[in-house]
Amino acid sequence: MATPLNQINNGGMIGRMARVGGCLSECIFCQIASSSSTSTTLLHSDDKVVAFRDINPSAFRHYLVIPKQHIPTVKNLQRSPEDFSLVSHMLDVGKSLLHRDAPQSKHYRFGFHQPPFNSVDHLHLHCLALPFTPSWRFIKYSSLGPLGGFIGFIEAEKLLERIKPRVPHPSSM
Ligand SMILES: [Zn+2]
Ligand SMILES: [Zn+2]
């Protein structure tokens, strides 16, 4: 017996909707953020972001903080109050988790990989409590590339400077 035509159409429609609706079926970080990935323990969750352990840690403590909203990379962030406060919030969450879980660490690092050096196309803040393990992993989380610019990795504070909304300076006129 042939498959009824309406079933074929439904299948096609659902497939298209999943694509248009974003990354629900394909993006691993969206699955984690929506708690549909049961294998990931969330260290923090609020209405804007979630945090969890990096699956392949590069330091004594290595967490990721991601927005619940699917923002692909730092290139998609705007110089706007919304994006600035989102990244500030991600950094605050990462800092408080590391200060809680690695209070004895002397050095911390917070930042983002820039395309094409990012591993997953869903914005994620790397939060590292040093030392790096193994120590050569520092290369992956350092902002100095061969040309000395923000190649590969950009520290969160530098990104915040970049997307900080311009405020008018009444006194400078
Ligand atoms: Zn996503
Ligand atoms: Zn990354």
UniProtKB/TrEMBL annotation:
PROSITE patterns: HIT_2. It holds the Pfam family DcpS_C. InterPro entries: HIT-like, HIT-like_sf. A motif (Histidine triad motif) lies at residues 122-126. GO terms for molecular function: adenylylsulfatase activity; nucleotide binding. SUPFAM superfamilies: HIT-like (SSF54197). It comes from the Eukaryota. Transmembrane segments: none annotated. Residues 28-138 form the HIT domain. Keywords: Hydrolase, Nucleotide-binding. PANTHER family: ADENOSINE 5'-MONOPHOSPHORAMIDASE HINT3, APRATAXIN-RELATED. This is HIT domain-containing protein. It comes from Anisodus acutangulus.
